[in-house]
């Protein structure tokens, strides 16, 4: 399909350019070129891109898959720049994908790309702007036969004219084109390496076979005409014509009038079709202008991400146009691409990072149907299912499984570490201890006939904490030898009423309470008080979607508060490291899951989370830099 050439003009040895061209599928090609002072990092980025592209970019969802690839590269780049702030020339990357004649590309640094049309027209298809630090938009162009694409690490129009492009490309192969460009650049005093790649889209060529094609078409025409059916039709036409000529004047006049009326009807139909086509063409033009306006609004929003008001205003306008065009069922392919671009910049604006599950970050795959909890005791990771406790969760090893046969028709629904044991609650409101000798036993509560109904249990030192069903309350049971003391409630009747329904709690020495409206309060004792916790810098997607699992995590050894919401893990930073003085938390970012639904998670320590989803347990690593969350 492609006649392609890539070369580097060596003016110095500082920047090394590496390139790769691979065929992902039939009529689906990927090309990338990277240049940087940090050669090892260039190799790393190349490897990351290829690893993702080979398995995840499809012909059916090329644009969407390409967008996810760019998000992952942006994450790698952020980490690299933080560690290499002294590099002067940063990095230049150009990635393109050709799906049949659909040419998609994105770039960082300051490369340039040019489309030389087979009509002898030159179009600069990259933006003339400052050096890009991250991938933002995907450009999309349709190629015709014999179109030429030229890509370079610098803006070639600073050295070449449009006529130079046409003279270099006319009737030449890409190797000769690049050689001509190199000859022109030799007269310039360049101090940096320049790489150039070019290709000619020549999927098919009919010009060489035009005369043969015409000859074959003539043969087919004569074969179609030389058959009995056609000859009979022509004979019937001649007989009908002869009969009409023999009719009297009145009949002939009637036939002529009928013919005129039919002609007028056909003419009316043609005029109506022309008018309708004109109106549709005009509407297409108006809709096309709306599409262009939506693109410009998205670009304006992206360029004003530091101003929430301007960003939000432009995003709302773009969304309104996209919804209007989608309702009209026009430009659906372009709308899908715009919607994806819009989603990406909204994620960037809201600090949403994407975690992609892979074999590298998987701790254990599980086929257990009813997994409910992942937690750590004595530095060993445990997996709790509805009937079984599984441990230790270590990649490459076989875990033990211990069942509690006395459960019968009962099941575990939640669990918490308790010193060197695990305390579990069941759906029939019983409390079970899984001791360090791997022995299960039911636990009694003093002066209570039964445990209170609850779906939630937590522990802190010698106490376990429960949120009773149908009560806006937090209760505590203290360990007393082999059993637990009767419950003690924390909230006063007045505070219980003001708090309303409790979704979940977390303990860092004092108790965070996550309310039904996702606001936070914190309970303190000695003296008693209930503090409203302000949540700062929250994005607008902080709300509960349908069937969303919501959990909150905090501990006295953690710097951050973590919330599971809408299949994302939100990270919040308290205003102080003193748990007794917390007054507010600030939003740092959120981590969304790429494929599977999150069931639970355990924060091993800050910057590392063990996540339990429908496929298994994964290790997620992140960091916080300049107040922003970045997935490693």
Mean pLDDT: 82
| Estimated structural class | alpha+beta
The shape is elongated
CATH superfamily of the largest domain: TolB, C-terminal domain
Largest sheet, strands/sense/barrel: 9 strands, mixed
Helix content: 25-40%
CATH architecture term of the largest domain: 6 Propeller
SS strand fraction: 25-35%
Low-confidence residue ranges: 204-214
Number of helices in the DSSP assignment:
10
CATH-derived topology of the largest domain: Neuraminidase
Q: How many structurally independent domains?
A: 3
Give the C-alpha Rg.
Answer: 35 Å
Question: What is the end-to-end distance?
Answer: 38 Å
Q: How many extended strands? A: 37
In CATH, what is the class of the largest domain?
A: Mainly Beta
Quaternary structure type:
single chain
General description of the model:
Helix 2 packs parallel to helix 9 and helix 7 runs parallel beside helix 9. Strands 11, 26, 27, 28, 29, 30, 31, 32 and 33 form a 9-stranded mixed beta sheet that branches. The chain has 10 helices and 37 strands. About 2% of the residues have low confidence. With 632 residues, it is of the alpha+beta class. The chain folds into 3 domains: 204 residues, Phosphatase 2c, domain 1 (4-Layer Sandwich); 104 residues, no CATH class; 277 residues, TolB, C-terminal domain (Neuraminidase), CATH 2.120.10.
In short:
The protein has about 625 residues and is of the alpha+beta class. The chain contains ten helices and 37 strands. It has three domains: about 1-205, Phosphatase 2c, domain 1 (4-Layer Sandwich); about 245-350, no CATH class; about 355-630, Neuraminidase (6 Propeller), CATH 2.120.10.30.
